[in-house]
Design goal:
This protein has 172 residues and is α+β, with helices and mostly antiparallel strands. The protein has a single domain (30-169), classed as Immunoglobulin-like (Sandwich), CATH 2.60.40. It has two helices and nine strands. The longest helix has 23 residues, at 2-24. It starts with a helix and ends with a strand.
């Protein structure tokens, strides 16, 4: 009797432990299977400026170091995101960049920089182009310029085109 009671107690303890551990596991972001396009962010960085040094070979074979610097407007920072944009629906709707915005805690929204080709010079490769996306999975870096005050608070990335309502909290 004592031995079987001990087995029941061990079983209940294991069951409780498994329940607690399952409850503590991080929640996975659920994707809506009805979305035409899904957006995922794998990394986000805030930068006050970008700096790099490139070794350039001259015509005579010697090398010189060329410094590159890119800075946002005064009072702003760069928000650099590594994203994957995937076509999940079978509609012919292209991905519309104007609906992919970064929002701050005050309700302001910011659009992607029209020209973020400078990212490649600072080893943010591959850069996802701003060209129309129609098929498959597209991954790469892109850049937003936002006020420093907005960067101090909560930020999210939202895609709100027809058939693809999605909002992602950004980790800084």
């Amino acid at each position: 009797m004592g031995n079987s009671l001990w087995k029941v107690i061990k079983y209940l303890l294991i069951l409780c432990l498994v329940s607690v551990l399952y409850g503590c596991s991080p929640a996975k972001e659920q994707m809506n299977p009805n979305l035409i396009w899904t957006v995922a962010v794998s990394k986000s960085e805030l930068k006050e400026s970008l700096d790099s040094v490139e070794a350039v070979t001259q015509y005579n074979g010697s090398k010189i170091d060329v410094e590159h610097k890119q800075s946002p407007a005064s009072g702003n920072v760069y928000l650099i995101l590594n994203v994957t944009i995937s076509k999940t629906g079978n509609q012919s709707t292209p991905f519309d960049w104007q609906w992919l915005v970064v929002g701050d805690a005050s309700g302001n929204s910011y659009h992607r920089l029209a020209n973020d080709t400078f990212l490649e010079q600072f080893q943010y490769t591959p850069r996802i182009t701003g060209l129309e996306l129609r098929l498959g999975e597209n991954s790469g870096w892109m850049c937003y310029e936002i006020p420093s005050s907005a960067a101090a608070g909560k930020l999210n990335l939202a895609y709100s085109a027809q058939g693809s309502q999605q909002e992602i909290s950004l980790q800084k």
